[in-house]
Amino acid sequence: MLSRAAWSLVLRRGPGIRGTHSPGGASGGRGKMPPYTNHYAQRYYPMPDEPFCTDLSAEQRALKEKEKGSWTQLSHAEKVALYRIQFRDTFAEMNRRSNEWKTVTGCVFFFMGITALLIWWLRVYVFPEKPVTLTDEWKARQLQRVLDMKGNPVQGLASRWDYERKEWKK
Q1: Which of 87, 95, 116, 160 is the most buried (most CB within 10 A)?
Q2: pTM
Q3: In 3D, which of 103, 106, 83 has the Cα closest to residue 93?
Q4: E strands along 9-163, which residues?
Q5: Tens digit of pLDDT for each residue in 101-139?
Q6: Cα Rg, the chain, nearest whole Å
Q7: What is the 3-state secondary structure (H, E, C) of 82-124?
Q8: Element (H or E) spanning 167, and its range?
Q9: What is the pLDDT of residues 72-105, one digit of tens each?
């Protein structure tokens, strides 16, 4: 029991395990992300370990220095600029609806149209014509033949046919 617990601790602290679970994969901030990477705040991961923009321009560095002072001296535009350095989108921008449904619906209707054209082409040029046995005349003659032979006179079609008046019983 004790050896199993010790072995599990050794495995947990192995050399290949990251210290923090960040999307960048680097532990402790050793490997800086390039500026404007795909590791940014999202609805399911709103507070990433690294800021959105890591390589700052001179203007952004000056703004970061000004950030260390009183926030009442910052204008609204400067606060927004500081926010944009740290995060790519606001929650409102992250939660806005996309127009992807239009593309999906268009593709579905496009492929349904192609399928309908294919079925029409198959019926016109590939499938053979209907057999004679499926015509209405043939079906009427077949029914009359069954009635003339008095097939199944107890419970079948012949039991519902009036042979004297030549019509169906009411």
Answers
A1: 87
A2: 0.41
A3: 83
A4: 161-162
A5: 999 999 999 999 999 999 999 999 999 888 999 999 999
A6: 39
A7: HHHHHCCCCHHHHHCCCCHHHHHHHHHHHHHHHHHHHHHHHHH
A8: strand 167-168
A9: 889 999 999 998 888 888 888 888 888 999 999 9
